[in-house]
Please model this.
Amino acid sequence: MRQADWLETVTYHRAIGVIRAPELTLGFHMAQAVAQAGMALIEIAWNSEQAATLVAQLREALPHCKIGVGTVVTVDQLHAALAAGAQFCFCPHVNLDIIHTAVARKMAIIPGALSPTEIVSAWQAGASSVKIFPVEMMGGSQYIQSLQGPLGHIPLIPTGGVSLENAADLIAAGATGVGLSSYLFPKQALQLRDWFAVSRRTEQLLERLNAYRYG
Model:
């Protein structure tokens, strides 16, 4: 997915569902639950040996969704994700080799940053947008708003502590999109395999963000 396509897609949908699952079947059901509720951007954390298989399966099962990866920390992991069919990539840090490789392969790349120096460095290196993590530890929407003056030209996607209660505030403060994991997939729902609860939480989130489509 090219940078322009990524920005158009995330600006429209606003939310990315982040799936962290140690087991393949669990991850598949998590993705299906949010997709059925209308989530179109799904990120698979690269934290298990099953991640590549899950990406490939979801690309086939959910053709209406964009399936990407997260927690990518090496170029080798990026190559494996590309081979599996990943359409975008989130990193927890700024790694110039990963950014340059993704740009060369025309893949949307969203490195993680926190300080203004890190954010600008990632953007100047070719990032498609910049992940702000962990946003709640830095003041949430107030921090995003404070960045708009000098860095308003850089599309920011906060993650870490994003929920139904603060997602709209982050978008209103200037964020291009938001990434959510624990809010969409609470421990009890996963333990009970309560996919209706997951879908309902996703619907509530998307209903609240609907007013912010295309800003």
Observations:
- Residues 132 and 158 are 4 Å apart (CA to CA).
